[in-house]
Amino acid sequence: MAPSPDDTYQLITRQLQEVLGGDIIKAILAEGRTPKCYWGTAPTGRPHIGYFVPLTKIADFLRAGVEVTILLADVHAFLDNLKAPLELVAHRTQYYKKLLLAVFSSLGIPTSRLRFVEGSSYQLSKEYSLDNYKLCTLVSEHDAKKAGAEVVKQVDSPLLSGLLYPGMQALDEQYLGCDFQFGGVDQRKIFTFAELYLPRLGYAKRAHLMNPMVPGLGGGKMSSSDPNSKIDFLDPPEVVRKKIKNAFCEEGNAAENGVLAFVNAVLIPISELRIERLQGKTGADADEGASAIGDQTPFVIEGAPEGTVFSIQRKEEFGGSLHYKSFEELEADFVAKKVHPLDLKTAVAASINRLLDPIRAAFQQDEEWKNTEKLAYPDPNAKPEKKKKVKVYHPPPPGKGKNAKPADAAAPAPEGQAAPTAPTPDATASTAAPAAQEQSTS
Predict the structure, then answer these.
(1) Low complexity: which segments have biased composition (predicted)?
(2) Distance from C-alpha of 365 to C-alpha of 210, rounded to nearest angstrom
């Protein structure tokens, strides 16, 4: 039995922090049409595990029958206050694509149902450029700067390139043909900017869906530019354990707790996704999980009660293992100090490594990806290789060199004459003696 439009809308919008223009999606579903969305990322710094939040949500979109486009915003990456120099953008774009494909496969999301588009494939066209110029005649410097405040790197003297960023992201909705754009709640100002200005160009207003942001390991936003706040997808297991061990996780304090927040935003949703898949609840996405890589079991230990979505394994002498059917239960126990931070950290580090194992393995098996990684993120501390001087042979001038013959010996005799011979030592002495006698008598 096909799900109702209301059920489909609920699936599309569940576990989101905010929805703008939900009526647009409801109207499309009521008409029996297929909604189209896009999610974009600018290939700048190395992606971190906070990306699991939007990438996991894309599974819900596919289950709801939504057509999903992944935008690799290479032009945006260059414009964002030169976070990525132009010569690196192409390599980083390919690195991102390789990584995203591996992450989707590790989540059991069929990549064949995703459309990947590079921004430069259409953002450099005549039509897009003209629309961008038209937008520039409508938008004030104040509005452009305000729209990008949470996304574009803020500096004392902003470059014009950063002011173009929000307008281009708005135009992408039209040129990618989407009904709604999906992104983090940090993009809200750009989304409201698009809702205001696209209709002024004669284009339709789109809906906007926002996922919550994962706090960094030390509190605040998890950021690619802060290595202490994040865990990279390719971090080795020991690095993951060390970063989680050093993360802020004060006993009884659930506020600004990056470890606890990661359970809520990533681990429990992935557990629920896998449990639903085991129950055959994949909706319109019949291929979900068919080509998955890595361990696809939920983060629940053997023997856990039915309905458990997250387990913390402990020895019996410390009270035995803990099982939770919701994040709210876990949070309440943590605040009541029934869960020790060390036990929580141990469980979270183990779960993250389970998530990253197939991605790290895919990287190690892909020589092209490894070469791309070196080009995209060259080691800033690497010493340039010293080029060995190549010896070039330069022939000596005529008559020089160890194998050269004396000039007079080498000269050929005129035709019809005998070649001159070098005087012998005796002949030289006999001619010199009379000359000496003549000089002494004079």
Answers:
(1) 400-436
(2) 34
